[in-house]
Amino acid sequence: MKAKPFIEILLLSVLACGLPTACGEWTEPESVTFDVAGPDRQDPAAWETYTAGVRAYKQTRHWIVYACLLNAPERSTSERDFLRSLPDSLDIVSLQRTPSQADIDDLKRMHELGTQVLWPLHAGEDPAAIRALVDRHGFDGVALQAPDGAFPDPGAALAALAGLGTVVYEGDPSLIDARYYPSFTWVVLPTSAMVYQSDLEQMIDRALRAGIPAQKLLFEVVPGSSLRDYRSTKTDALTLGSRISTSLNLAGTALYDISQDYYHASGLNYSATRALITRLSLIPKTDKP
Q1: Radius of gyration (Cα) for the chain, nearest Å?
Q2: What are the backbone angles phi and psi of residue 265, rounded to the nearest 5°?
């Protein structure tokens, strides 16, 4: 073998042996801190003017838009889980998981926008302990979670929550005693899984007949889903839902699973929610029964 080719092969072998070490050094992960300046830091005066306008709107008589958020666990990899990623014009956000530190950190921003945030009370939890957490962290109230049946012992829960502020029942009110209805600020009817307009309106009718005022009722719809109207024609759920809400003079609409498509380029839930709020804000709220 000639000397030159032999030396070239030897050099290549040495380089190859050194590559894993070199590459390991090049790809060693490093911690990088990102400091993202939000609008409140970019122009504090403009932010204050904007938030004052949003809060003023929420103090007017208008159709309530309520969101049920499957909020951030202790470790999350997506902005869709966070309160800060929701549309500013939402009136109320009901957290579906026990709040994490991220939710507590976002609470100040939500209050700047006049958005109420409710702590969830699940079956089996101690309502007095939940009341203490709500008071400690400055949440606006509690939502009793009863998606699949009656909330157990609502009387004891309401006694522990007396005077708290906003108390919402998320579930079928026909499954609990009517004497508890006056204690709820709103009742969110579990209609998000329904398909037909007739079924949805029957649940609303049962609630009205049970003595719950229309102004306390909201019903759930999923943004991007469809309902079947009386002709069995597939219709956008938010469009048909808002039509039913305004025609019956209900309190408004509750959006369920609002963060499910956060990754989509179209931002369906986000844009649909904003469009719904804009549409409802143009419809005067009346005092008719």
Answers
A1: 26
A2: -60, -30
When comparing pLDDT for 32 and 107, which is higher?
107
At 188 the pLDDT is 96
92 contacts 69 by C-beta, under 8 angstroms: no
Listed in sequence order, the residues at least 6 apart from 9 whose beta carbon sits closer than 8 Å to its beta carbon are: none
In this model, does residue 57 exceed pLDDT 80? yes
Provide the b/e sequence for 237-271 (b: ≥16 CB within 10 Å). Answer: bbbbbbebbbeebbbbbbbbbbbbbbeeeeeebbe
Per-residue exposure over 186-217, b if at least 16 CB sit within 10 Å of its own CB, e if not:
bbbbbbbebeebeebbebbeebeeeebeeebb
What mean pLDDT value characterizes the chain? 83
How far apart are alpha carbons 238 and 273 in whole angstroms?
9
CATH number of 43-281: 3.20.20.80
Cα-flanking dihedrals φ and ψ of residue 148, to 5°?
A: -115, 10
Strand partners, 65: 253
Q: Taking the CA of residue 224 as centre, how many other CA atoms within 13 Å lie in the half-sphere pointing to its CB? A: 14
How many of the other CB atoms lie within 10 Å of CB of 60?
8
47: left (phi over 0), alpha (psi -120 to 50) or beta: alpha
The SS3 assignment for 202 reads: helix
In the three-class reduction of DSSP (H, G, I as helix; E, B as strand; rest coil), residue 131 is classed as helix
Percent helix, strand, coil in the chain, to 5, is 45, 15, 40
Higher pLDDT, 172 or 71: 172
Phi, psi (degrees; rounded to nearest 5) at 145: -95, 115
The whole-number average pLDDT for the span 234-246 is: 88
Nearest-10 Cα torsion for 192, 124, 164, 69: -30
